[in-house]
Amino acid sequence: MPARGKLIVLEGLDKAGKSSQCKQLAAKLAAQGLKVNAISFPDRTTPIGRMIDAYLKGDDQQDDHAIHLLFSANRWEVAAKIRADIDAGINVVIDRYYYSGCVYSAAKNSDSLGLAWARKPDEGLPRPDAVIFLGISQEEAAKRGGWGGEKYETKAIQDRVRELFVQLQSVEPEKQDFVRIDAGQDLEEVAEDVWEAVQKVFKRVDLHGEALRVV
Ligand code: TMP
Ligand code: MG
């Protein structure tokens, strides 16, 4: 029986370089003759994704809880496809997942929307075999130049997101998922660290015949 696909997520703040690292990783896996499907969240192309896009661009207002549930629904739309890919031996590389979902919503500091509440709607989704967290310091992020004009691209939110990512990486069960990489290095060095981490994940999953878990 062929090995199942692996589910690898890249996470981090805006400007950490996730999208380009995802692309490189998918290309490297493909170059090894492995099947790979690269996706990103939010997927702005679906009807729910278009509502999220309008919210992020400031063209539409949403209650904090409502937009949180839309981000989650946007993952559930693709969950069965992710599972089918993994079963078929296709590796899935994802740019942002429910970890972003939890921290960005909780960064709004609403009393009724903490990390624990934020995690609930994503329970049952396929859980990644590893989450590669591209960590970037405040100073390095500032050097990389301005954010765009989207909803969460302000210093106050990004600082709070940074704190909450640290918090999420220190509590069970998320603690075990994260591999932290210094994204302040040269792009090539970051790519090498990502590749090294991914190879370890492949070895671990195949050696122990680990089944895909759920959130
Ligand atoms: P992007 O910059 O990767 O396209 O993501 C757009 C913004 O959406 C980014 O600031 C992070 C935020 N986000 C959430 O608030 N919740 C989520 O579930 C996801 C996936 C992203
Ligand atoms: Mg962004």
Taken in chain order, the helices and strands follow as EHEHHEHHEEHHEHE
Ends distance = 26 Å
CATH topology: Rossmann fold
Bound molecules: thymidine-5'-phosphate, magnesium ion
Number of domains: 1
**Secondary-structure-derived class:** alpha/beta
The overall strand count is 7
Search tags:
single chain; 215 residues; alpha/beta; Rossmann fold; two-stranded antiparallel sheet; 14% strand; globular; binds thymidine-5'-phosphate; binds magnesium ion
What would your notes on this structure say?
It is globular and about 50 Å long. The model has no long low-confidence stretch (mean pLDDT 95). It contains eight helices and seven strands. It has a single domain, classed as 3-Layer(aba) Sandwich (Rossmann fold). Helix 1 (18-31) crosses helix 8 (187-208), helix 2 (47-56) packs across helix 3 (64-87) and helix 3 (64-87) packs antiparallel against helix 4 (98-106). The two termini are 26 Å apart. With 215 residues, the protein is α/β, with parallel strands linked by helices. Thymidine-5'-phosphate (TMP) binds at residues 14, 41-42, 56, 71, 96, 100-101, 104, 152.
Strand-helix topology:
Blueprint: E1 7-12, H1 18-31, E2 36-40, H2 47-56, H3 64-87, E3 91-95, H4 98-106, H5 115-119, E4 126-127, E5 130-135, H6 138-143, H7 155-168, E6 178-182, H8 187-208, E7 213-214
Parallel strand pairs: 1-3, 1-5, 2-3, 5-6
Antiparallel strand pairs: 4-7
Helix pairs in contact: 1-8, 2-3, 3-4, 4-7
Residues 14, 41-42, 56, 71, 96, 100-101, 104, 152 line the site of thymidine-5'-phosphate.
